[in-house]
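REQUEST ID: PR-0412
SUBMITTED BY: lab tech R.K.
PRIORITY: routine
TASK: structure prediction, single protein chain
INPUT:
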Amino acid sequence: MRPICTFTVVPSLPAELGCLRELAYNLRWSWDHETINLFRRLDRSLWEESNHNPVLMLGTIRQSQLQAAAADRGFLAHLERACEGHKRYLGQTTWYDRCVTEQPGRRCIAYFSAEFAIAECIPVYSGGLGILAGDHLKSASDLGLPMVGVGLLYQEGYFKQYLSSDGWQQESYPINDLYNMPLQLRRDEDGHPLIIAVEFPGRQVKAQVWQADVGRVPLFLLDTNISENSREDQDITDELYGGDLEMRIKQEIILGIGGIRMLEAIGLCPTVCHMNEGHSAFLAIERICMMMEKHGLTFAQAREAASAGNVFTTHTPVPAGIDIFAPHLIDRYFGHYYERLGISRQEFLALGRHNPYDEGEGFNMAILALRLANYANGVSRLHGQVARNMWQSLWPGVPEDEIPIDHITNGVHVASWVSRDLAELYDRYLGPSWRDDPADQTVWEGVKDIPDGELWRTHERRRERLVAVARRKLVKQLEHRGAPPTEIAQAIEVLDPKALTIGFARRFASYKRATLLFHDPNRLAKIVNNPERPVQLLFAGKAHPRDAAGKELIRQIVHMARREEFRQRIVFLEDYDMNLARYLLQGVDVWLNNPRRPREASGTSGMKATANGAINLSILDGWWDEAYAPEIGWAIGRGEVYDDHGFQDAVESRALYDLLEKEAVPLFYDQGTGGLPRKWIARMKASMAAICPNYNTNRMVQQYVEEAYSPATERTHRLAKDDMSGAKALAAWKEHLRQHWCQIQVIRVEDSSPAELKVGDSLRVQAEIALGELKPADVRVEFYHGRIDRQGQIIHGRAIPMTQAELNGNGSYTFSGIVPCERSGQYGFAIRVLPRHPDLSNAFEMHLIHWV
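STATUS: complete
OUTPUT:
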């Protein structure tokens, strides 16, 4: 029976508890232990049953309990502390207020992502990308950035995982009850739900807007599951990463184009749009359209104005991980844009193609983002190198080191992931600055002042809690599968709360090699079953529903865990989510990560584990490649890359066993006076002090502000002032440059130095260059010099500008410069000409380069 009317029921709180509602609807509670403890104090069991959802909890708790809390002086005092802390947080002066000088009325940074992991009670995330996006917003709030988040609100979210009796992953898709989550419908001036519309073939698809407050940062989530849409269109926001490519393009249109229209409907005009992966890249097209229509610009002019404020972060180290749409899908969903933009079909498709003239090539969302972004970056130093190599063909003639893709290494929001026990220890010995300014190196030097005994006992309590949780979850898993009573009884006694505990939890993709540790089961059995030095392993993670290879890895681990020699030592925990992640990260001794280098773009779980006292044991990939030092953890191998994967697995599994047998296990069990493993504790402290201040999202977001957001904001304002005169002039200058670039000719190059030079000498060079219709101010002439390799190529080249000396009688110009000789060896130089204009984001933006 369909209702003729719907209405919303909200919790009825006694006046004394009114602030509870404000606390519940602002997700700052998810990283504030004081507020979490308050909700837990109200009803501990209901807090767990609600999956840590304070809105659902307040809506289902008995009224008598609320009345009792309203009369409880201790609870009211606790509530007052939490409310005062919340108000103080929202009202205090922030890093952004102090350090960033921009015109206040013109600031807005919109952060777009297909998934956000803020808290487990809003399950619209699958893994690392969402975790990173959630932590980004939390740090943006802490730092006071004028940021908003934009995403999709999935009715079913990502799947819940359970295993069959054979260990094969199964999926269920429970419906999210949006009205019982820390979300509120955004409403228009008349009080009706705010609705935006996006053109689809033959129809409009509409979406309503939900808002989640993440501290100071509003997160807007679009939802197409409304009666104004057809049943098919209501399903667009059903599943995260569900359906086929056509469903994916629909979702990405709603995210990118719908997201921009939603911000405009709210009255926000973002100066900067940050695309977290390419899923939202269609926003760049919509921004161009809006610029054209609002300001009467041509496509070329609007492209300059809009792209100036776009930032793109790629997380993908392989082409297979990128959405590529067939041309017929682009025609179907964007055919009406060709005329609206005033460009041809081929010109539109060229925005997302390597080769604009290849009619068979698909439309690549990462290429679209790269072509229409002012700034692009990878998510670790190594991933920046991988990304530059991966996309080098988009910049013909540009050396790989100079491809304009930077790197900003990921981090974690420390306060969200540190256990309550350890947070209290940090408060006592580091002071409040570890929360307020976690990027301050001097703060974390205080770790050395924590007494070894206190740190170790705190860590042991977390390990004991992890073992207790693992046993309870394992029993429930077995009961759900219909396991025999004897197996369930054995589950109650698995694991040892005193044993060295290794954690491995992440997405189950083949390249992450979850089963590398099982390459030699007999050797592993000897390691884990040593009666004097036992070792145990906890695994968790989901495979994508269509990834049979990933599911097979899970099945293999489950079967291995059932073998008699591993039954007490190895456990696979189902349905990995943020809650289970915290128990694992806060309780293990060693965090294991062994992907195939260089397939891990960054990874962040090891950073969270470190903040809780775990030590990393990992392949030198992603963030660990730049963070590793012998005194803070262990590296498997030395960064080798193998063509033969079978050989690689054999070599690196042996290296892993060696590290466990000869390094980690002996160090853990080397316990001296007081039963303390002091050398292990020293490594814990060294790891915390080195990693926590450098691999946190406060440092990361500050870096985005300094290297991406502020430059993009300044460039956007510069191009937009005086009725877009800067954008118009830049577009005209680019067109002039493209028309006359072919006229550049190098007439002669002279150097007056001998063939053999000494360290400290200089090589003096002159170049006579004809520019045709161009002027010296339009170009930058540079030396490009460096060491010569065995193939006669310049490697690790460095560019030095040449200066204009004079205008010659034939209309050419003489440029001159000096190459310093800083080290011995064989060197070479080349000369190149690049475009130069104060409003270019980088010298390679126009894909024009003339090598001599």
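NOTES: The mean pLDDT is 95.
REVIEWED BY: pending
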